[in-house]
UniProtKB/TrEMBL annotation:
It is an enzyme of class 6 (ligase). This is Histidine--tRNA ligase. SUPFAM superfamilies: Class II aaRS ABD-related (SSF52954), Class II aaRS and biotin synthetases (SSF55681). Keywords: Aminoacyl-tRNA synthetase, ATP-binding, Cytoplasm, Ligase, Nucleotide-binding, Protein biosynthesis. InterPro entries: aa-tRNA-synth_II, aa-tRNA-synth_II/BPL/LPL, Anticodon-bd, Anticodon-bd_dom_sf, His-tRNA-ligase, HisRS-like_core, HisRS/HisZ, HisRS_anticodon. The gene is hisS. Belongs to the class-II aminoacyl-tRNA synthetase family. It catalyses: tRNA(His) + L-histidine + ATP = L-histidyl-tRNA(His) + AMP + diphosphate + H(+).
Length: 432
């Protein structure tokens, strides 16, 4: 029997000693994301972790690495009344589009602004910042073509990490055009790379006919001269895409968001149109992209809906937390929840009284705990300290007979006798 987690999957554990895997840090990041999303007018949608494979084939793209190499597929049993193959979600956008259509969210006032977060799965090589089981914060906007929305989703992500103190990020943007102007660019790329095809990696040779835009962001051939001199997609934009691109840059400048134009960003999914962006931090090395996204104006139609514009991003939680740790940004995670009271009991007569008091404290909204291992008083006090308890409520047989308890303020080191029926009000008065 293996006692190790599968390769590429991580336990998220309670305790500062676990660094970026400390569950309190995860909670803090999730709370910050939810709060910023709420301020921006986004609503939560929780899609299932499993979707039918064809959703990703049609939505993400049949030739993408996700579909051809990385999905965790589930083959139904022979007696399953639904024989269609399913997959653990490799990303959020396709599932949110499916939920938007299936549940008729397009009938609500538009645009529809959604956020989601949780685990996703890709069968890929494990390295720093890249896991097979990972987590994303995701936002999507359906039904708005305005480039101001593209700028908004970029700003939303920046606001989330700024609240945690993270700076020094690089916002890289590009436009990959639309179905009207992209064919010319595809043709120009193929004409440029065709004489060098035999010199490129196997993936690039496969992409040459099916997805030539991926030729310019291949990491294996990054140093090849053909990549350095490849045609630039911005030179091939139609008037509509050019106007949208200039509008995006204008909004970023108006918001005071520094950016760089990176014409090699195409993103790895087929559904992107016009705006694509990545937010990077150099601390992660090869996996420096903390989050990325863009516009996908044709995706909803491909999945089966009416033509509807869309834009969004997926942010890697592991990567954000790793960078925060490497930057020493622990302040947002300090002040972790403390236990309000730990009840110490001594003797058989005190035990039932202590248990009753424990549940009265919890019912009153105070966090409280008690010893379950039969420790000595000294050991119980030591354990209460490790639990970071504000107060220790001490009950011995003598205190029970007198109807009182000794309450010790752990931070101040003071101790006083308090009637049992006044314990709750006493602790509340002493709350910081």
């Amino acid at each position: 029997m293996s006692i190790q987690a599968p390769r590429g999957f991580n336990d998220i554990l309670p305790g500062e000693q676990y660094g970026w895997r400390d569950s309190y840090r995860w909670q803090r990041l999730e709370e910050t994301f939810r709060e910023v999303a709420r301020l921006y007018g986004y609503q939560e949608l929780r899609p299932p972790m499993v979707e039918y494979v064809e959703l990703f084939i049609h939505g993400v793209g049949a030739t993408t690495d996700i579909v051809t190499k990385e999905m965790f597929n589930i083959t139904p049993r022979g007696d399953d009344p639904d024989p269609r193959r399913m997959a653990m979600r490799p990303e959020f956008t396709a599932g949110l589009v499916r939920a938007y259509l299936e549940n008729g969210l397009y009938n609500s006032p538009q645009p529809t602004k959604l956020f989601a977060y949780g685990p996703a799965f890709r069968y890929e090589n494990v390295q720093k910042g890249r896991f097979r089981g990972f987590h994303q914060l995701d936002v999507e906007v359906f039904g708005a073509q305005d480039p101001a929305v593209d700028a908004e989703v970029i700003k939303l992500g920046l606001d989330v990490v700024a609240r945690l103190g993270l700076t020094g990020l690089v916002v890289s943007v590009n436009s990959i055009g639309c179905p009207n102007c992209r064919p010319r660019y595809r043709s120009a790329l193929q004409n440029h790379f065709r004489p060098h095809l035999g010199e490129l990696c196997e993936d690039c040779r496969t992409r040459f006919d099916k997805n030539p835009l991926r030729l310019i962001d291949c990491k294996k051939d990054a140093a090849h001269p053909a990549q350095q001199t490849a045609p630039v997609g911005l030179d091939y934009l139609c008037d509509d895409c050019r106007s949208h691109w200039e509008g995006l840059l204008g909004h970023l400048e108006a918001m005071g968001i520094p950016y760089q134009i990176d014409t090699r960003i195409v993103r790895g999914l087929d559904y992107y149109t016009k705006t694509v962006f990545e937010v990077l931090h150099p601390k992660l090395g090869a996996q420096s992209t903390l989050w990325g996204g863009g516009r996908y104006d044709g995706l909803i139609e491909v999945v089966g809906g009416k033509p509807t514009p869309g834009v969004g991003f997926g942010m890697g939680m592991e990567r954000v937390l790793m960078v925060l740790e490497e930057e020493g940004l622990t302040a947002p995670f300090e002040g972790r929840p403390r236990l309000d009271a730990f009840v110490v009991t001594l003797g058989d007569a005190a035990r039932p009284v202590g248990l009753r008091l424990l549940y009265e404290l919890r019912a009153a909204g105070l966090s409280a705990d008690i010893d379950y291992l039969g420790r000595s008083m000294k050991a119980q006090m030591k354990y209460a300290g490790k639990q970071n308890s504000r107060f220790v409520v001490i009950l011995g047989e003598d205190e029970v007979q007198r109807g009182v308890a000794s309450v010790k303020h752990m931070d101040e080191g003071t101790q006083e006798s308090v009637p049992l029926d006044q314990i709750i009000s006493h602790l509340r008065r002493a709350e910081p």
